[in-house]
Amino acid sequence: MTHGRSKHDDVLTPRERQVLDLITEGLTNEQIAEKLGISPNTAKFHVSEIISKLGVSSRHEAVEVMRVRSHRQRLPAWFAFPLCRAQLAVGISVLVVSLMALLIVTSPWPNGSSRPSAVATEANNSVGLDLPPATATTMPVGYTDPFEYCAAVGRVDEPDGRYVGPMFSAGLVEGFARALGRDPRTGPSFVWRCADGRVMACTHGNNLHCGKADTNREPTAQMIEYCLNPSQDLPEGLPPDLLRFIPRTLIPNRNATVYSWECRNGLPEAVPSQAVDAHGFIERLWYVVSNAP
After folding, report:
1. Which residue among 27, 203, 232, 245 has its CA within the 20 to 30 Å range from the CA of 157?
2. What is the spatial distance between Cα 179 and Cα 287, in angstroms, rounded to a whole number?
3. When comparing pLDDT for 280 and 248, which is higher?
4. Mean pLDDT throughout 89-104?
5. What is the tens place of the pLDDT at every residue in 118-176?
6. For residue 15, how many C-alpha atoms fall within 13 Å in the half-sphere facing its CB?
7. Angle 45-197-172 (CA atoms, 0-180°, nearest 5)?
8. Helix 146-153 and helix 170-180, axial crossing angle in degrees, nearest 10
9. pTM of the predicted protein model
10. Chain mean position to CA 36
């Protein structure tokens, strides 16, 4: 079990956790955008994703959810003291080394005899509080080119710390414009990710959902009520065939859902309307971006 980690860490991307921390500090979308060096639309998109993933209805509720979960999963009080942690680490190290020494002493040589006492003495002398020096590790060099980055990492739903280049490089902007058949100078704002070693980009805004698709098939109480009386609150004279379609205003996450909803036999029913790719995104909204002209 992992202590000291909030449950929202399992559903939010690293960037969304950054945004959530800034929301907790009381920052607006514009201030978050300035702080992280992103556009206000991108900040707004991240806030919307956080609210959706945490199952809340506002940024204030998202902050409360984070505070409650962090409180519940706080480390035990005794473990918070450095001395206690050090004593525990030392105790475990001594126990492990002692067991290894015991195995050396009791393990027979190939001819069946016991190991010489000198070996046992050397093993016993190795038991102490000095830990071996840490092995030096080389941190991977960050990628500055999004195409090289995606080719190396394979799949990531949002650029992480391994990418250190500009979020929207000239090559990326031009490549996305080519995919859309647009002029790079007038191309729309977008977000990107890596999938199968390729750069994928999605235009966000105008009710387009670039996050994970909503595949929930559970109808809401409002949808059930509508199907019991589909003509309520609607203009008179509508063809009966149109009344079977549940209004989009009653569909939660209507921009993210992959279903259209209809009334069938007096009950709401989810009808597949959009394909989802292998990584859970709405397929038609994402384009493969190439750096080749």
Report:
1. 27
2. 7
3. 280
4. 68
5. 444 444 454 444 545 555 545 456 899 999 999 999 999 999 999 999 999 999 999 99
6. 27
7. 55
8. 80
9. 0.49
10. 18
> What is the DSSP pairing of strand 259-264 with strand 286-289?
unpaired
Domain with CATH 1.10.10.10 in the chain: 7-72
Query: H or E element: which one contains 190?
Result: strand 190-195
What is residue 77's DSSP assignment? G
Question: 3-class secondary structure for 191-257?
Answer: EEEEECCEEEEEECECCECCCECECCCCCCHHHHHHHHCCCCCCCCCCCHHHHCECCHHHCCCCCCE
Neighbours of 40 (CB within 10 A): 14
pLDDT of residue 226: 87
Which residues have C-beta within 8 Å of that of residue 209, sequence separation ≥ 6? 255, 256, 282, 285
Closest CA to 36 of 145, 162, 143, 167: 167
pLDDT digit string, tens, across residues 23-65: 988 889 889 988 898 888 788 888 888 888 888 888 888 888 8
Q: Which of 2, 15, 4, 1 has the alpha carbon at shortest distance from 53?
A: 15
Q: What does the pLDDT read at residue 104?
A: 60
What top-level class would CATH report for the domain 7-72? mainly alpha
Question: Among all chains, which residue has been given the structure tokens 């989810």?
Answer: 270
